Amino acid sequence: MTTTTTAARAADAGDAPMPSPADAPGPRPRFTATARGRYAVAAAGLVLAIGATFLLDPYRNYLLSLAAAYVCATAGLTILIGRTGQLSLGHAAFMATGAYGFALTSNALAEAGIEGPVLLLVPFLVAVIAATAFGTLVGAAGARLHGPYLAGLTLAIVLALPAVTSTFSGLLGGDQGLYVRTERRPEVLSAVIANEQWQAWVALVAAAIVLVLLAQLGRSPSGIRMQAVRDDTAAARLSGIDPFRVKVQAFAISAGAAGLGGAVLAYVTQAASPGAYGLSFSLFLLVAVVVGGTGTLPGAVWGALLLVLLPEAIAAVTDALPLPDDAVSRLDGNLAVLIFGALLVVIMIAAPRGIQGALVALRGRIRSRTTRTTST
Fold it and tell me: What pTM did the predictor assign?
């Protein structure tokens, strides 16, 4: 794989060109000017998002928290697919692992009388560790599988989730799931903000951490090795890269991000149940990544926003139409699936690189027109 090929493909995905895999093992400064710029942009975006929570009502802050949780999952999935070419149809299972890890830890700490930052932070840490460990196992099992075989493995995992929760119903709560006892907003803020706003702050911080770390990964030697394995496994192996190790690492990182998203979801909804992480939700995550723009973190954000806003828009339209109650009940949920599918077809025809790819192409056309205008 040549540097030109890698740079061109990165540019198509909306990322900056990166050096070739042969340069990957060399030392890199930890905080370059570009890295500092990314951190500054992320910090500014986080501050603006937190400021926006003061303008939203509690329900919209709740939706913002859901979107942030989905960003964690879609960002991890887009790295898995875009960087290593591994397809996962069961990413909701990793979110479920994080949610149950968060719930069990949070409930245990609450029963022990522990409160404060420990009750808030430790469950998130356990959720990420549990999901990462599970992702490592799945990645090791599927690292030598390709295409439909890997997809089938991940599909079987998410389909087995209800059976696992039923088998260990005493621990996991069966089909009803678990109620999560979480740390509410600090007392010092109780007179200033609502609990939904505090939850949105926590969710936004989690999403910002995932986006910054994955952006850093994409430009690190590990990210370059992932691209090398995706482009040509044989050439990567000849260059001294272990494809098995790289694929397992990608699965572990992606699962950890999804686990954090599941933990945020459990924290916001105060529940962890198998019904929330079924096959349809797992497929929605994949559709969101494709529609947003596979392999790009901004595309993951677009896809997560779509997962939250599109069902809300559909519900608003159906409520406004003079439809009988039985028709509304039949359309509830099914219409969202239909529109998601139609949107996927339209986006793939009109913009094969997704929303982010279309925006990058539009920006390029505007720049070229501006350049021609100024040159004349």
Answer: 0.86
